[in-house]
Amino acid sequence: MRNLVKVGKIVSTHGIKGEIKIISNFPYKSRVFIVGNNIYIDNKIYEIKTYRHHKNYEMLTLNDYTNINEVLFLMQKDVYFEKEKLNLNTNEVLDEDLITYKVLTNNKKVGIIKEIFQASPKNKIIRVLIDNEEILIPFYSPQIVNIDKEKKELTIKINEK
């Protein structure tokens, strides 16, 4: 069984030669959308034949599809990629993995991650619950001290009131 991660959604076609538009806010899409890589749509493997980035879209042609009518069945489908092939570094973690992590604070309190959301295209926020109090932490902030992928722990620094 493959361990797949969602990397985007097909939103439309472009032109008449079978090119598709994918909207993606996946943080490691530069490792996914490469000519020759395989993506998964409805658990079926498709090979990326051409790729280009255009405005807010990832533009692809797949397999040997060369006509718009051959790709219409893919519209509005989610696109997946094999997690193992992302080759994440020790300090890189996917949101769907991070949401399962335990949160530790500098004053030895333990909490959980309730939600991770995009506040803007480049600003991700983590909603943490500690002692029935919600704390919002920007993902790219000095408050995040450590991410331990082996222990599945996120260490944060919070200021006392």
Give the key terms.
161 residues; mainly beta; Elongation Factor Tu (Ef-tu), domain 3; six-stranded antiparallel β-sheet
Task: Describe the SSE topology.
Blueprint: E1 4-14, E2 19-23, E3 38-41, E4 44-54, E5 57-62, H1 68-71, E6 78-82, H2 95-98, E7 102-105, E8 110-120, E9 123-130, E10 133-138, E11 144-148, E12 153-156
Parallel strand pairs: 7-12
Antiparallel strand pairs: 1-2, 1-6, 2-5, 3-4, 4-5, 7-8, 8-9, 9-10, 11-12
Could you walk me through the main structural features you see in this protein, from its secondary elements to its overall organization?
It is a single chain. With 161 residues, the protein is mostly beta strands. The chain folds into two domains: 4-86, Elongation Factor Tu (Ef-tu), domain 3 (Beta Barrel), CATH 2.40.30; 95-156. 5% of the residues lie in helices and 50% in strands. It is built from two helices and twelve strands; from the N terminus they run E-E-E-E-E-H-E-H-E-E-E-E-E-E. The chain has helices at residues 68-71, 95-98, and strands at 4-14, 19-23, 38-41, 44-54, 57-62, 78-82, 102-105, 110-120, 123-130, 133-138, 144-148, 153-156. Strands 3-4-5-2-1-6 form a six-stranded antiparallel sheet, with no helix packed on it. Strand 9 and strand 10 (133-138) form a beta hairpin. It is elongated and about 60 Å long. The relative contact order is 0.16. The model has no long low-confidence stretch (mean pLDDT 92).
